[in-house]
Amino acid sequence: MAALAPVRDADFVTTPQSLDERFRDAVSALRPPERRRAPGDPVRDGVTLTGARALELFDAQLTSRHLDLAARWLHSFNEGFHTVGSAGHEGNAAVAAALRGDDPALPHDRAAAFYCARAAHSARENRVQRLEEAARDILRGVVASVRDPISGGRDKVFGNAELHLVPVISTPAGHLPRAVGLAYGLSRSPDPRWPADAIVAATFGDDGVDQPGAIAALHAAGWHDLAEQRIPLLLVCEDDASGGAAPDGWVAAVLRGRPGVRYTYADGCDLAATFDAAAEAAEYVRRERRPAVLHLSTVRLLGDPGDPEPDLERDPLVGTARLLIEAGLFEPDEVITRYDEVGWQVRKAAEEVLGEPKLATVGEIVASLAPRRPLRVAHAITDAASRAAGPGAASRSRIFGGRLPEQAGPMTLAQTINAGLTDALATRPHLRIFGPGTTRGGRHGVTAGLRERGGDRVFDTLPDATSVIGLALGAGLAGLLPVPELTGLADLHNGENQVRVEAATMSFLSSGAYRNPLVLRIPALADPYGIGGPLANDNSLAVLRDIPGLVVAAPARAQDAAPMLRTCLAAAEVDGSVCVFLEPAALYQTRDLYQQGDNEWLAPYPAPEQWAGQHAPIGRARIYTLGTAQDLTIVTYGGGVRMSLRVAARLAADGYGTRVVDLRWLSPLPVADLVRESLATGRVLIVDETRRSGGVGEGVLAALVDGAFVGSARRVAAADAPVPLGPAAQHVLVGEDAITEGAQALLAR
């Protein structure tokens, strides 16, 4: 490569200059043998990698190394924005070669050689040109060019839909649960992108072995295998000992001891050994449809300050050069010449991408984040209704056991959700409903009977949220429509990072090439009777409120539950939306509204002919008017709706008219509706079930300010405290007395 800009030695464990010099010195010292091998022969005795294939992979390795050097050159004058390097991990080119080009792969952030090898192997003609294009694509990510083929300049990730590479951005090994889900879905979804015998591969570093993602994925892979739920998954751990503090043999012990997951080890700096081990592992996964882990010993070169000092003698580029020279396929000077040729090609590509445009507006940045096509969503609901009432009527009747829900009389919230899920099973063959104990009804009995109606499309999972959400993300990527259930908000907090970093960003990072449709059901919000204490009775939604693109639905009653569930399912199906469906657990079995026995909190289940007319669009509120509706506006959601309606009825008896705005959608908020209804009275009481700090009410107040509301506003919210057990919960949570006091204070102005 051309002369590199000076880089201070303190910046990296090994500098680009020293790495370059050591490669040249090491190669120059090598000597070819007397007997030369033919390109079609194994590159050395006892291996299957041929000389011709080794030469191809060496080009990918060289390109990867020079990409690292180019990234640092660009960074030296503030034009390169990502310098996480792959130096020392170039052996993963052999892993790419051992897979098929149509095997979906989730490569981690040291996978440049993997990317280059797959790109070159996919080209039937002009392999060298395709390798140059791959280098240019990777450099586009480094400089944040809008021509980056996967993210469009939004981040630097190794992804490419044409190469079946799924972009990864996560904590170490955080993408592995998704890989488990993709492998699960691959065997159960007729997705045209991938053949029936395809396998899923995911690479990760040894720093991820002790992280929740790897632990959950390895656990889940073995669990599915022992449950005879075959998943064709190959996990590849590239162990460069960057963890530092781990005792010798720890990574191998962790990976080798997983039940149901086959273990293989190879020296990842030895191209031939890596290829043979990867080919054998991939063939096993493809043949048996069972999970395996490949443990590769690598080295981290061009590391960060604080990394362990690398073993420079294990440089994989030197290892492959030695392999080729000792096979008589290259002379030392030919290797160095090829090294320089690739370097100049990569430098030329780096100079070319410098002038490419960057994202210039917020609109360009968010274009692929969360597309909203409300008309298509409405049409999807109409189509589902047509299937349920037309040709699918007999099937629907059969799945309901002959008694249709619209014939059953008024239903509770829980019953309506159960019927809505059953209808979804009847109208969407690709739907999957799962979670801890789902076949037994889940924690609150909402999914009771669904297993009998949906067969193996309804199933139980491991109890941890990481596995549940990961399974859903991968299944959605494979073309299924996942509807997982968590046991409560406390579980969401365990898996929140997956929703934030992986689920909500997939379309964003891939410019819409990949998506993960999802409707995540969670029994949520707090029970004023204090059932369960702080963990089981969590009322915080703060972790959901600032996730860009996320849809958060919160139906308060049966009247809205089925229409909103259908909207979420249609949005996931049509737009790839990631939806969180919050179900007020305290209201699951509530029947009455104003007085005992009135049954006014129940609602009849709509027949398919009514689905279109009862459509609940994302971001639209429901408005209740009591009395003249001219004196006060109450903005609320969930359990606050029932309490506010009861308070409003008492106010109406005293001559005050109230508008109760049920937000229904907590993200995006129905801003136009709440501002309009607030301006109509000039007095706004916000009734917020969540905490005063970080609660939904903060967003409502901000919307009012942005909407130029100049009247009086007051907020009633839960205290900034965990919800205690028993009657003490009522001192923390919002109650009708507090709502009444807030309303009277506003009306007195």
UniProtKB/TrEMBL annotation:
EC number of the protein: 1.2.4.4
Stated name of the protein: 3-methyl-2-oxobutanoate dehydrogenase (2-methylpropanoyl-transferring)
Cofactor names: thiamine diphosphate
Keywords: Oxidoreductase
Coiled-coil residue windows: none
Transmembrane segments: none
Residue ranges occupied by any Transketolase-like pyrimidine-binding domain in the UniProt entry: 411-590
Species this chain originates from: Actinoplanes cyaneus
One GO process term, biological-process aspect: branched-chain amino acid catabolic process
Keyword Oxidoreductase carried by entry: yes
Molecular-function GO terms, alphabetical: branched-chain 2-oxo acid dehydrogenase activity; magnesium ion binding
Keyword Oxidoreductase attached: yes
